[in-house]
Amino acid sequence: MSEQKRPLSGVKVVELATFIAVPICGRVLADMGADVIKIESPAGDNLRYTAPTEGRPLDQHENTTFDLENANKRGIALNTKSPEGREILMKLLKDADIFLTNWRPDALKRARLDYDSLKQDFPRLVYANLTGYGETGPDCNLPGFDFTAFFARGGLLGTLYQKGTVPMNVIPGLGDHQAGLALCTGVLAALYQARTTGRGEKVSTNLMHMAIFTQGIMVQGAQYPDYGQVYPIDRRTTTSPFILAYKTKDDRFIQICMPVYDAYYPRFMTAIGRGDLAEHDCYSKLAVMAAAGRSPEVYDILVEQFAKKTLAEWIPILTENEIPYGVAQTWEEILEDRQAWATDTFYKMRYDNGHERTLVRLPIQMQEMGLPPYRRGPLLGEDGPAILKELGYSDEQIAGLFADRVVVKSED
Prior knowledge:
Layout (H helix, E strand, L loop, with lengths): L11 E5 L4 H11 L3 E6 L23 H7 L3 E5 L4 H12 L3 E4 L3 H6 L4 H5 L6 E6 L14 H7 L21 H24 L3 E6 H8 L1 H6 L23 E3 L5 E4 L4 H11 L14 H6 L3 H12 L4 H10 L4 E3 L3 H4 L3 H5 L3 E5 L5 E5 L23 H7 L4 H9 L3 E2 L4
Parallel strand pairs: 1-2, 1-4, 2-3, 4-5, 5-6
Antiparallel strand pairs: 3-12, 7-8, 8-9, 10-11
Helix pairs in contact: 1-7, 6-8
């Protein structure tokens, strides 16, 4: 598919951001055809060095995490604190359509890169910022990762675990990716406005807000303490045992989801081998069963039944009876999931070192555009010379910028 056929061809994006949440927004724009120029400090985005915490070797020539967030971008490593570096940044912004950043409010103001400072010189610019806790309020300048701002303060860790145990083990990127996609939604709307009216806009979101929005149904429900259960809960005593995961004979878990308990009850009980309870007056109606405190009894029945068969035995039974279920898969199994491959969830990347790895595509597809290319993320400063040439710098000037370490480029 040619660049001209991609919807954001001709759009220029300047990304001054690290880690995940904002870079994934830039990745979406790059996949859609925008020219995304990623600016890193001379030391590089810290995401380049997180491999040990993710259980993989540290190798800049096979950096699957960095590629997930930064594929299809160009990169320059720039000391924006120097006068020459700031001049290069301003030249990049001069004809940019979108500016992406995750710097905290005070840092942006000190660097004169806040929205109010830039909009005077770049009135058409779409300015997008994503932080841990927002840009106002007493905690707006706290450092925020999805572990802290999204999972912890956002309410997931304090509620979504088995009562009496410990919070779940969290993983990087879950909150970042959601917040980054939300930011991208606003960016595209603002870009449309800028193209039609000539007026730029500031778009912002934060990890804490995204967590609260993600759990909005339950957060709002917490205003009614006289109804339902207060989380964290004991799964055995939850109101409906039809929305839990159960262990099979071979120690696998199957998640079932039947929100309308009464409608599924007869068919489900028959499917799991308890047809004798299909019309049971005490169990067949959720309101009656829950009011009588019999949820634990139904839970215990399901635990007993699921433990009688292996996962392989349960799958056809649940499938044929159209019971909504999902196997609790491991990451290793996901990499081999036939449905994921059938929907182009994955891409086979062959690295320069000869290794072939499975990389995850963005969850956005367009039929006419087709699947976008998957070019690895840039090595540190890899495109610096070409980008400077485009800005009008001569070979001599570029050599001087490298000599003064205003711009750097990894040699390895």
